[in-house]
Amino acid sequence: MTSSELRRRFLDFFEKQGHTLVPSDRLVPADDPSVLFTGAGMNQFKAHFLGLKKDLKRAASCQTCFRTGDVDEVGRTSSHLTFFEMLGNFSFGDYFKLEAIQYAWEFLTADLKLPEERLSVSVYEKDEEAAGVWLKAIGVPKERIIRFGAKENFWPSNAPSDGPNGPCGPCSEIYYDYGCCTVGKVCPKPDACAPGCPCGRFVEVWNLVFTEFNRQEGGKLVPLPAKNIDTGMGLERLAAVTQGKMNVFETDLFEPVIEAIIRLLRHEAPDVLKRDQRASVYAIADHARALTFLLAEGVVPSNEGRGYVVRMVLRKAARAGRGLGLERPFLHQLVPAVVKAMGEAYPELLGRRESIAKGILDEEERFAQTLKEKIPLLLGEIRRGPKGFPAQEAARFYDTHGLSYEEIARVCAEQKAAPPPRADFEKAVLELQAGSRQNSRFAGGIFAKDALQEAVSGIRAATEFVGYDGLTAQAKVAGLIQENRLVEEVKAPASVGVLLTRSPFYGEAGGQVGDTGILEASEGKLRVLDSQWVGAVLVHQAELTEGKVRVGDPVRAEVDPARRQAVARNHTATHLLHAGLRKVLGDHALQAGSRVADTGLRLDFSHGKALTAGERQSVEELVNEWIESRLAVSVAQMPLAQAKAAGATALFGEKYGSRVRVVSIGEVSKELCGGTHLTASGDVGLVTIVGEGSIASGVRRVEALTAEAALDSMRAEVGRLQQDRQRLIQRNKQLEEEKSSLKAKGAA
Ligand code: SER
To answer: Could you tell me if residue 503 is inside a domain?
Structure first.
């Protein structure tokens, strides 16, 4: 059975059981600041688990995931990956253990027809209910029901003792028994081999999580408002099992990629094929898939946050390649193979093939250069110093020379010098940067322990946004946050995060900045400086200037109308600019990111080279013509399929629900967008491009201004030109004078 068919079969099965099919969320979640990457199907449903969102009872999805926790295992085992697809079914306060187990069993044994005797299960050691269901309702023999502790059978792993805070619960896993070792090792205990044995005979295919608790500070497990189900089954593992393969890398999901690597090896390093280097080939295949998807979503290798994680994965793959004799950049050549394997399911990859490959090639070259230049420096330092290499020195190599901890540790090991412990190194890096940059560089978990997120998890209801049609609203204070804690009352003067039952304030999303304005509570006045979504809850970041405010107080909320109008002007202008760029440069010039503020706008788009002066002028002229034509801006809600059929531009990697909001400007632009806009293009007034440059390979950025700001910038430009003109006239005069005096001297 092909993997495409498996995806379909899974979703069809759960749709028939009344589940709403929800599209995969982005790998880089748009509205969850607490994580770097989407690591599980449940991530996009956190608000549903917490009872904040109530629009779904049952859902199913096939979610692209990226996790780095097992990165060192990838290639060595039959089933570990960094990038994978997770099939999942979810219940939010609807069905629980019995049905979740029944559905899973029915899908595997009746739908996919896996032999029952090949399946074993595990349950949490204290979960008698789940054990009972497997034994009595399903009839799994007792010896194939294994009990594990919270490390294996609680999700997230060890949540009660170690956290993170948030939704969690005991889980039950389903294992497939290959009947023999899958990792090429001898089983250490052939007679007692069981799930969890390192020989890999038993591969976990499905994890059923009974999400019933909200873990709070100190490990308190508070029952959630409702009992939920979160399941996750790795598509790659299921494909291996159903395709009769011993590991995920032999499935159709990897076939073209492995073939491409083997071709490269035959060409570049034929000797290597004789040796057993399978693990490296497999790791490269995994990393090539991960990089393709991450770069497609606009993540750019860098020294921070997500970019750092991507850089590390790329370097790992490049090093594995070097180990096989691939000395020159090669990873970028695997992108077409990844797209071949995945393009049918993820057609968005097709149009980005070239820019992804270019991005990977650039980073491969940068890495080669870094190794060439910096390793000798590092060697010099290590040789000069005492036996151990100090953390502060290592941090300096990281910060100024771009060498990763892994590289530094490797060179230390080669020189028989002890590398600093990783924790000391990380601390030294943070100290070096004195907290000036975000401290997320080493995070990468499923849930990060984000303080605000935690504070907000105590709030039971989502904020209703009522700001498309009006700028004022009556609401009640639903919560107050001070220093990342929920408090009951705040007295002036104070900074406070205010949560309201409903709000006309637009929380930052889709590149558009958050609104500012005022809140008039019954006994206090607040100035809102920013509005940010934390999951389904809008946090108004405010200054309490007078009086006091308490939870439950009635509030009149009012958005600053002039600023909102300026933001709308820039947002409508952004859509026009996007349309203009695509018209002048071609359809490939798709938006890769944007920042829409009251003071101006910035648009990132895919394009391989700088705009020529002519192109820049054409785009500007076109956009201003559209403004002059006073095109109507209209907004419509429709099903996603209908919007796509009507040619609406959807941004790759953006997450759209099944119903979407489509913003059209006359006939020239149609985009999926949740932002606030003008009602007519004419109100933009004027657009001028003030900057253009490259921000990553294959991605350009234009900066533009509208209306007054555009006019001011043009006036300033004219002023500068006039000054330059004066200077040139002056200089010319001076030169003329010098010339005549020289001439006179010459004559004399
Ligand atoms: N959240 C669980 C996991 O990631 C089940 O989907 O394993």
So the answer is: yes
